[in-house]
Structure formats: C-alpha cells, structure tokens
Amino acid sequence: TLEKFGGIDILVSNAAVNPTIGGVLDCPETAWDKIFEVNVKNALQLSQLVVPHMQQRGGGSIVYVSSVAGFQPFNVAPDNIRVNCVAPGIVNTKFSSVLIENPAAAEKLQENILLGRFAEPKEMAGLVSFLCSSDASYITGETIVVAGGLPSR
C-alpha cells in the first residue's frame, strides 16, 4: 500500500472467523482461541501497523466491522440466570497503577473525567452487589458504564 498508493488513509478491519456452531457456553477452548486471535488480536495488530502512517499523513479513518451479537446477552435468561456487564472507568487498583502513579498521565486522564477523580473499588462493588441482588431481578443483558462522567459513547 505504501509503495503503490504512497500512504495509508483507511483501515477496514473486517476479518473474522467463527469456527463453531452453537452457543458461547458450548464453544470449545480451541475455537475460542481462534475467534479471539482473528477477531480481536488481529484488529489491534493492524491498527498498530497503520496508525503511525496515518499520523504522518495528518489523519485517516479506521472502521472495525463487528456484529450485532455483541449486543445480545447469553441465552440463559429462561433458566433464571441474568447476565450483565459493568464497564468501569479508571479505578484505583494495581491494574491501573501504571496510569495513576504517573503524575502527568493521571492529570491528563482526570481532565476528561467529569467528577475529576479516579474511582475506588468500593464504587464498583456496590453496583456489582446490586446487580447480583434480587433488587435487580429484572435486569439482564445490560452494560452499565461507571466512569465518573468519562465519555464512553
């Protein structure tokens, strides 16, 4: 692409595999590994390859082709099993310490958080406890963003 067209302006990541039929809970580990490798890891690797070239050209466009299946919960609700997702922002944990303990990075990140601070683990625990309780007995298939106002959409 660089030789023939002089640069890279567009990446459309449309490669995907689905080597098995059936529900995700019946998916063999080898098939899951293949799905992750092609559908997720390769999209990252392609982006890592092309973004520097787009930056040199002053911009570009990346489109990841996904699936509506990402918005469909596991089909276990008829068994009275609810499945939900908590999508936290930056939480003060060992996992995020590389960001939080770097003053320049922490300051830059907090500029985009409307509450102006990082979350504490207990702030995630309350929501998780709620989702596991009978108070949430009619909630399933949802993703709840808990990010202190950090833009998520």
Automatic annotation (TrEMBL):
One of its GO terms (molecular function) is carbonyl reductase (NADPH) activity. It comes from the Eukaryota. Pfam families: adh_short_C2. Belongs to the short-chain dehydrogenases/reductases (SDR) family. This is Dehydrogenase/reductase SDR family member 4-like. It comes from Homarus americanus. The gene is DHRS4-L.
